[in-house]
């Protein structure tokens, strides 16, 4: 009968060779034979993490730490498992604990830095990632994460150097180029940025082609049928569907696949011959070319001074606008106050730790937005959906906020409500794009590490003529932003409505 040491040797050989199932079976047998085997619990947790079962990984490695609380490898890997599960505060505490026990613990400074970055603590993240890069200047992921953190901190030149250094270590890996694309786009360098952004397909391992048809890259399309399709979020679809009419103007027949929530609304976009969803493509006509919506700026050769903005390109159905105005009694009021819509939270996407962390950085609690409702001369309207809408229950009950969203079924309804608003004040969500694309004035509250599409150092948006940006001056600090909005809202109410 093999000894535990011999079983470990075989299991680790399987593990290092990538045979995770075989390794896990042996680790489990060791643990069943001796529940106090901390190493087996630790290694089984690592296997769970490699399989993407992060909650299981946390439980198993936590058990190992409970048995041996001074093992820095256990503690550091527990931090990594917590980070992968999106539990950043706990991950940061465990990385700090590992470093307190072993200041030069390999890999821990970089992990701590990336956890801090995910938690929105950008300045601390840069410091720790810089330290990690100094300890191991040839570590690909450290340089990559340092470049991202420096970019989010607005230190673009340093960020570019770090990302280029990462790319030189792994020229076959598209991730540094994708992050470099975002950096270039945030600076308004569309020529290089949009070209690099096409590397996202290499990074995801997917193909931009649909049904084997070639991707449109800007060539003549007169007489051709082109299928456009969404690949990312609702806001992205709303922003880049502006290119569909331009493609039709070039003589193409345009087909479009959109999210179900947008189907009714985007039927108003000029130049679309057929609009459908992925659930309803059976009768889709044959097509010659295809193009994801996010690749249209590249195909059209867009530059920051030639962004197709102009007049609104989305129009809510007129009968729906009338119906909502009647339902809310807005068609019968005269001498009314300034009607302002509010959105304070995005989609939390709790199933995706990275997206959830980003949403935490872009969203604000309703309590922080609530003083805006008290600005004299406004009628406040909620456009908030999801769990965050519950935060405003008391304000709705007190009559300081009108909430029509229970009757909303899709974005056509939201657009119809917004059509009667004088202004929309929102964090960076799809509603910002919806309101601006329909021509409503929008004041956007933007996090410090803003999305590339809002660029840096601007109070306006070349994408939307009716949008004004209110940016954080420091990561996570919203109070000065809300104060500026309150000041400008008060000034607006003191004058004429827009």
UniProtKB/TrEMBL annotation:
Pfam families: Glyco_transf_9 (PF01075), TPR_19 (PF14559), TPR_2 (PF07719)
Gene3D superfamilies: Glycogen Phosphorylase B, Tetratricopeptide repeat domain
Keywords: Repeat, TPR repeat
TPR repeat windows: 72-105, 140-173
Organism for this UniProt entry: Azospirillum isscasi
Superkingdom as given in the UniProt entry: Bacteria
PROSITE patterns the UniProt entry points to: TPR, TPR_REGION
InterPro entries: Glyco_trans_9, TMTC_O-mannosyl-trnsfr, TPR-like_helical_dom_sf, TPR_2, TPR_rpt
Range of residues in the leader sequence: none
Protein name, UniProt field: Tetratricopeptide repeat protein
Phylogenetic classification of the source organism: Bacteria, Pseudomonadati, Pseudomonadota, Alphaproteobacteria, Rhodospirillales
Record-linked PANTHER family: PROTEIN O-MANNOSYL-TRANSFERASE TMTC1 (PTHR44809:SF1), PTHR44809
């Amino acid at each position: 009968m093999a000894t535990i040491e011999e079983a470990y040797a075989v299991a680790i050989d399987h593990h290092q060779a990538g045979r995770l199932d075989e390794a896990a079976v042996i680790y489990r047998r060791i643990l069943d034979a001796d529940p106090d085997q901390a190493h087996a619990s630790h290694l089984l947790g690592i296997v769970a993490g490699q399989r993407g079962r992060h909650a299981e990984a946390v439980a198993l490695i936590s058990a190992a730490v409970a048995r041996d609380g001074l093992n820095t490898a256990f503690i550091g890997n527990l931090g990594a498992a917590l980070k992968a599960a999106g539990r950043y505060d706990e991950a940061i505490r465990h990385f700090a604990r590992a470093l307190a026990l072993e200041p030069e613990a390999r890999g821990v400074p970089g992990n701590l830095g990336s956890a801090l970055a995910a938690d929105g603590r950008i300045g601390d993240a840069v410091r720790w990632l810089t330290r990690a890069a100094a300890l191991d200047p040839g570590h690909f992921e450290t340089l990559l994460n340092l470049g991202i953190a420096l970019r989010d901190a607005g230190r673009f030149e340093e960020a570019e150097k770090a990302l280029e250094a990462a790319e030189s270590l792994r020229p076959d890996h598209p991730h540094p180029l994708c992050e470099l694309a975002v950096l270039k786009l945030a600076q308004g360098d569309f020529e290089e940025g949009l070209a690099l952004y096409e590397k996202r397909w290499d990074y995801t391992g997917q193909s931009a082609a649909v049904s084997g048809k070639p991707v449109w890259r800007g060539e003549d399309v007169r007489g051709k049928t082109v299928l456009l399709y969404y690949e990312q979020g609702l806001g992205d679809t709303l922003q880049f569907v502006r290119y569909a009419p331009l493609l039709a103007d070039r003589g193409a027949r345009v087909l479009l696949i959109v999210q179900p929530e947008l189907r009714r609304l985007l039927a108003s976009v000029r130049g679309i011959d057929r609009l459908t969803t992925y659930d309803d493509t059976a009768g889709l006509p044959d097509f010659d070319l295809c193009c994801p919506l996010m690749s249209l700026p590249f195909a059209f050769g867009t530059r920051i001074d030639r962004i197709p903005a102009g007049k609104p390109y989305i129009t809510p159905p007129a009968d729906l606008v009338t119906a909502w105005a009647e339902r809310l009694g807005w068609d019968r009021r005269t001498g009314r106050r300034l009607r302002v819509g509010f959105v304070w939270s995005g989609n939390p996407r709790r199933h995706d730790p990275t997206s959830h962390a980003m949403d935490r950085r872009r969203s604000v609690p309703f309590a922080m937005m609530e003083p805006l409702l008290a600005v004299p001369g406004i009628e406040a309207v909620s456009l908030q959906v999801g769990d965050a809408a519950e935060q405003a229950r008391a304000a709705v009950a007190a009559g300081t906020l009108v909430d029509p969203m229970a009757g909303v079924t899709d974005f056509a309804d939201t657009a119809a409500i917004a059509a009667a608003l004088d202004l929309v004040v929102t964090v960076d969500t799809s509603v910002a794009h919806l309101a601006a694309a329909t021509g409503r004035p929008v004041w956007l509250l933007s996090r410090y590490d803003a999305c590339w599409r809002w660029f840096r150092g601007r109070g306006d948006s070349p994408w939307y003529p009716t949008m004004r940006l209110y940016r954080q001056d420091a990561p996570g600090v919203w109070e000065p932003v809300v104060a500026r909005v309150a000041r400008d809202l008060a000034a607006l109410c003191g004058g004429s409505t827009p």
